[in-house]
Design brief:
single chain, alpha/beta, six-stranded parallel β-sheet, five-stranded mixed β-sheet, 7 helices, 11 strands, 35% helix
Length: 238
């Protein structure tokens, strides 16, 4: 495949290495220093765009990429209030858009474990739930997209909880998410259920960015030739 990297920070560079290892060609490396160059790409010159940039840049990046007829894989978080706009543009242009808050296979298995545990605990109101996510100091958004996906999975099956909130919450009607920024941590997510007599905890710890990057490249390989809006459930067939 001919890949354009839209966003060429640490993740972009890891994605580049994996894409090259898998036999793909990087035809564009776009960041804030050469953003205008992206307008030159079209389906005649590129097969897919992988967008890992910045929350403030993602929306325009996606508008441009999909508007230029390019299948687009996005891993940027912190822009999802505009998701319906991008999905509508994808439908209007008969384009292809793939979004995941986290491309790691392990994290996506963790999503399913999280929801299953939430379903099992739901009948027992004595358990209060909270979440902690830890990321590197360079991460701009909080809570993480992964934490939000975990929270949404819990809210879907535990109907005593009506919302999540950053930091504040009682664990009974509002799920609190603590967001910590430390060093160069790739990503740690912990879901804890606490009662007067015991605690139940599930945890996912990423050791590096390789798992995220590999998932994004695999998603790009899968997306080419398709039309519509997709996510990791489609890729994994679950």
């Amino acid at each position: 495949m001919r890949i354009v990297l839209l966003g060429y920070g640490k993740m972009g560079k890891v994605i580049e290495g994996i894409a090259l290892e898998r036999g793909h060609e990087i035809v564009g490396r776009i960041d804030e220093t050469n953003r205008a160059d992206f307008a030159s790409f079209s389906p005649a010159t590129a097969d897919v765009v992988i967008e890992f940039s910045h929350p403030t840049a993602a929306l325009q990046n996606l508008k441009d990429s999909i508007g230029q007829g390019l299948p687009t894989v996005c891993g940027t978080t912190g822009w999802l209030e505009h998701r319906s706009e991008i999905e509508a543009l994808t439908a209007k242009t008969s384009g292809a858009f793939f979004y995941a808050s986290n491309y790691s296979i392990g994290v996506n298995l963790f999503f399913r474990l999280n929801q299953q545990l939430a379903k099992l605990i739901s009948p027992y109101p004595e358990y209060q739930v909270e979440m902690t996510e830890i990321h590197h100091i360079h991460k701009k958004d909080a809570p993480s997209g992964t934490a939000i996906t975990l929270a949404e999975g819990i809210l879907e099956v535990n109907h005593r909880l009506s919302q999540w909130a950053l930091e504040e919450g009682d664990g009974r009607s509002t799920l609190p998410i603590k967001a910590l920024r430390e060093g160069e941590v790739p990503g740690t997510h912990v879901v804890t259920y606490e009662s007067a007599v015991d605690s139940i905890e599930i945890k996912h710890t990423a050791h590096n960015r390789q798992g995220f990057a590999l998932g994004a490249v695999v998603a790009a390989e899968w997306l080419v030739g398709k039309v519509g809006v997709f996510g990791m459930d489609d890729l994994l067939g679950v």
